[in-house]
């Protein structure tokens, strides 16, 4: 009967191996090959190897574990795919994840600059793959995390923004195609210059901008409002500036995807239909096309044509404007003289581009106006935050770019004008 203990020992070892393969953790003695996976504690996400679309290339990625349609939310080796099933993911003693090909060459790796004694890599139920010291569950102490290296998908609790201390940016990059997760030409990022706003860009060309944060939402995103699915948050302090979303129910599957055509898709999984529902998209009409009407103009989707000069401005090239080529924008009828200028109020708009702006969180609107008047190049001012009657100061300098009418917005911008122009009525714009 001596074979019974041996059988029991072999069975227990098999159980341990199976548990390790299906666990949420990789350590320095446990690696995964193509075909193996690890799964987050509640089964929400899975880490393993996959082939996108019609491609036969193999990638290491993360996808949802509880839905019928394989939906990839993060990819490691976006730029260097594996061409066979030989991929192996290991965790080194230094706490670095390395993806190896058939010849043992590293095709992708994480990084760390912090010494570690007993590293583990764990897939969390948020979809975040983290490398940490074993037993330390404080996310602040992670050596590396996938949430700091987004692909084309923003998951709840991920940040879109910048670490001001390290200079690291967290932004989305569209896939080249459904068959190729390598970096495409379109990015979505929270830009740090002036007063922060979100830009969607194709290489260096701006396609869409969110408008600056107004205390409640980004001023050019009226669809961003309280809802039953998620809460949203904008944070700006000495260490970081970012936008993030928090699910109201952790069983909900929700993601924001940057597409290659420039659209941003907000998607919710509908269990009854076994499909993703397009819940919304912030860039929805022609007036969301960046600077469609040129400088010092305004776009109103309810007008025909949709572009007009700001009151007190005229087309820069009238012939082009009449042919609905608005690219050269508008210029002032009457030049400013600096010492005798005033302001005209324009209401319910997406605020102008903030690239050349300046802001102060503690000033009131009157102080903001006076500060603008003391600078001859200041062209407009507004409250920074529209809550509780308004607070803070946002100033623009030079030409005003990409203004549009948005009746949902309860915010005013005051545009600098020569005194001779101040008798005109802006309500016709």
Give the beta-strand count. 35
Rg of Cα set: 26 Å
Average pLDDT, to the nearest integer? 91
Note the main sheet: 5 strands, antiparallel
User: Which structural class best describes the helix and strand composition?
Assistant: mainly beta
Strand order of the largest sheet: 29-35-32-33-31
Proportion in β-strands: 35-45%
How large is the count of helical segments? 3
Q: What is the total number of structural domains? A: 3
User: Helicity, in percent?
Assistant: under 10%
Overall, the morphology is elongated
Extract low-pLDDT stretches: 1-21, 424-429
- How far apart lie the N and C ends? 95 Å
How do you describe this structure in short?
With 429 residues, the chain is mainly β.
Can you give a write-up of this model?
The chain is mainly β and 429 residues long. It has 3 domains: 23-149, Bulb-type lectin domain (Agglutinin, subunit A, Orthogonal Prism); 150-284, Orthogonal Prism (Agglutinin, subunit A); 286-428, no CATH class. Helix content is 8%, strand content 38%. It has 3 helices and 35 strands. The protein has helices at 3-22, 318-322, 365-373, and strands at residues 25-26, 32-33, 38-39, 45-50, 59-64, 72-75, 88-91, 97-100, 106-109, 119-123, 129-133, 144-145, 153-154, 160-163, 169-170, 172-177, 180-191, 197-202, 205-209, 230-236, 240-247, 254-258, 264-270, 275-280, 297-299, 307-309, 313-315, 330-332, 341-347, 349-350, 357-360, 378-382, 393-397, 403-405, 412-418. The strands form 9 sheets. It has a 5-stranded antiparallel beta sheet with strand order 29-35-32-33-31, covered by helices on one side. A hairpin with a 4-residue loop joins strand 23 (264-270) and strand 24. Residues 1-21 and 424-429 have low confidence and may be disordered.
């Amino acid at each position: 009967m001596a074979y019974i203990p041996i059988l029991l020992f072999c069975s227990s070892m098999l159980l341990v191996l199976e548990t390790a393969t299906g666990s949420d953790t990789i350590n320095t003695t446990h690696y995964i090959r193509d075909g193996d996976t690890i799964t987050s504690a509640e089964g929400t996400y899975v880490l393993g190897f996959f082939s996108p679309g019609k491609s036969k290339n193999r990638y290491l990625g993360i996808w949802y574990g509880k839905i019928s349609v394989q939906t990839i939310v993060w990819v490691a080796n976006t730029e260097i795919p594996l061409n066979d099933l030989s991929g192996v993911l290991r965790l080194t003693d230094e706490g670095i994840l390395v993806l190896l090909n058939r010849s043992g060459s590293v095709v992708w790796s994480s990084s760390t600059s912090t010494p570690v004694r007993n590293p583990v890599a764990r897939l969390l139920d948020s979809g975040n793959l983290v490398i940490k010291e074993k037993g330390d569950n404080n996310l602040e102490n992670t050596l590396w995390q996938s949430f700091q290296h987004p692909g084309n998908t923003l998951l709840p609790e991920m940040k879109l923004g910048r670490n001001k201390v390290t200079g690291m940016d967290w932004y989305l990059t569209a896939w080249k195609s459904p068959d190729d997760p390598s970096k495409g030409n379109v990015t979505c990022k929270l830009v740090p210059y002036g007063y922060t706003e979100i830009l969607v860009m194709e290489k260096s060309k701006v396609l869409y901008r969110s408008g600056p944060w107004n205390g409640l939402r980004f001023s050019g995103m009226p669809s961003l409002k309280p809802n039953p699915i998620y809460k949203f948050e904008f944070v700006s302090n000495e260490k970081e500036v970012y936008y993030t979303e928090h699910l109201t129910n952790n069983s909900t599957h929700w993601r924001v995807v940057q597409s290659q055509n420039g659209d941003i898709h907000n998607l919710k999984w509908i269990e009854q239909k076994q499909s993703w529902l397009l819940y919304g998209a912030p860039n929805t009409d022609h007036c969301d096309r960046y600077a469609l009407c040129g400088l010092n103009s305004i776009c109103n989707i309810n007008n025909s044509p949709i572009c007009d000069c700001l009151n007190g401005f005229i087309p820069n090239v009238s012939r082009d404007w009449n042919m609905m080529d608005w690219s050269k924008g508008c210029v002032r009828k009457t030049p400013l003289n600096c010492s005798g200028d005033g302001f005209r109020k324009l209401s319910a708009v997406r605020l102008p581009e903030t690239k050349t702006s300046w802001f102060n969180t503690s000033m009131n609107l009157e102080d903001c106006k006076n500060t603008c008047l003391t600078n001859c190049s200041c062209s407009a001012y507004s409250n920074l935050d529209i809550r509780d009657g308004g607070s803070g100061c946002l100033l623009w300098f030079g030409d005003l770019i990409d203004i549009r009418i948005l009746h949902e917005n309860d915010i005013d911008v005051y545009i600098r004008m020569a005194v001779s122009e101040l008798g005109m009525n802006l309500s016709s714009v």
